Amino acid sequence: MPIGDGAADHLIGLHLPDIALESTSGGEVSIKNVSSGRWIMFIYPRTGVPGEAEPIGWTDIAGAKGCTAEACSFRDNLGELHESGAQSVTGLSVQSSAYQREAVGRLHLTYPLFSDENGRLAGALKLPTFTVASLTLLKRMTLVVDGHVIRHVFYPVFPAEGHANQVRDWLRANPAGLLARDESLSDRIFRQVDAVGQIDPELDFR
User: Fold this and answer.
1) Do residues 122 and 94 touch, judged by C-beta distance below 8 A?
2) Pick from 44, 87, 102, 149: most CB atoms within 10 A?
3) What is the pLDDT of residue 185?
4) Are 142 and 163 contacting, i.e. CB atoms less than 8 angstroms apart?
């Protein structure tokens, strides 16, 4: 079981930056403009391909396994997630969009996956990562976003296969608008200053 390390505590209240990511739905989409309402982005390390060996040491990493099961769980619960207030559901990994399109087709996913292959979004938001077999991958987490403001973060996520139900239950208990609040400019600057006291230019303070 993964252990909470506080690596995602800074995300709540952040405004998503205007960074375009390639989508399996076709073309690039600015992460800031996915939806004007409430939406979900589950972040996962990687999906495997049948017949391909997993990275050496993969099974020894707490919380690494389960990406396919998690993706299928969001697929199977998509209707209930929409009914619970999520206008959109998306997935994010650092795998290439071509790799992701294979997963979308094979798993019959009914929502888009975004590729942060060059790490721009991960770097701008300072998302937690881990390294295995020379691969730098994103740790598993889920963001609840209102427009372009991160309202809630699930981190760490375990077990992966039942996580969509956890997200659904949270949405039902926290309707959109209940958590919305105005933040002062100083609050937002405080949240978006990195550990060494420098403001990331990718982040939006508006």
Assistant:
1) yes
2) 44
3) 43
4) yes
- Residue for token pair 């399109």: 101
Residue 127, amino acid: L
As beta bridge partners, residue 39 has: 88, 145
Q: What are phi and psi of 49, to 5 degrees?
A: -115, 130
Tokens of 8: 């995602």
Categorise residue 174: left if φ over 0, alpha if ψ from -120 to 50, beta otherwise: beta
Compute the radius of gyration of the chain from its Cα atoms: 16
